[in-house]
Amino acid sequence: MSQFFQIHAETPQVRLVRQAVDIIQQGGIVAYPTDCAYALGCHIGDKDAVERIRRIRKLDDKHNFTLVCRDLSELATYAKVDNQHFRLLKALTPGAYTFILNATREVPKRLVHPKRKTIGIRVPDNVIAQALLAELGEPMMSVSLIMPGEDEPMTDPYDMRMVLEKQVDLIIDGGYAGMAATTVVDLTEDAPQLIRQGAGDSSPFTD
């Protein structure tokens, strides 16, 4: 049975944030709000939690996982970023984007794309997500909360409670979230490539 925390969207309760991070550090899976849709997150180094998320979402081993980072300095620890792309990242983060980048050795191998050696990186513009990351002190492994057979993410924490209460360890109610996933941009080549149009403005990559 999962726990259910109602965390204030603008002034998160420190006690609840700390309890949520304790759950993550102990191998738990959390459903949490971002600036786009809700997501499932777990500790970056917890193999069992990652496998549980794979089963919930029915993901194959070719899925590009995302590391949700607090800021650009944390991002640069886990992904290789050249000066040109750093300027782009600086302009667009925090925001509704996931960037595909070449992974550094700091990323656990099980999270790296098996052939491309890439990782998704994201810096969310959401107070609750940022509070969790600040308390955690490292990125979270994350995927959008889109259930198998569905095209859009879940938006209502009470629906999540009904569907996921036996599959995740914590559901954070931070209010209703948007239904759009992030805009995904591949930065592994010289020219950025738009992979998926989502909530983030795609004009910097299509003009």
Number of domains: 1
The assigned CATH architecture is Alpha-Beta Complex
Number of strands: 10
Quote the average pLDDT: 93
Our estimate of the beta-strand percent is: 15-25%
CATH class: Alpha Beta
> What is the CATH superfamily label?
DHBP synthase
- Overall shape: it is globular
Give the low-confidence spans.
Answer: none
Biggest sheet features: 10 strands, mixed
Order of helices and strands: EHEEHEHHEEHEHEEEH
Structural class comes to: alpha/beta
**Approximate helicity band:** 25-40%
CATH topology: DHBP synthase
Strands side by side in the biggest sheet: 1-8-2-3-7-4-6-5-9-10
Give a structural overview.
- A 10-stranded mixed sheet has the order 1-8-2-3-7-4-6-5-9-10, sandwiched between helices.
- The mean pLDDT is 93.
- It is α/β, with parallel strands linked by helices.
- The termini are far apart.
- The chain contains 7 helices and 10 strands.
- β9 (183-186) and β10 form a beta hairpin.
- Helix content is 30%, strand content 22%.
- The chain has a single domain (3-200), classed as Alpha-Beta Complex (DHBP synthase).
Q: Which terms summarize this structure?
A:
DHBP synthase, 207 residues, alpha/beta, 10 strands, 22% strand
In short:
With 207 residues, the protein is α/β, with parallel strands linked by helices.
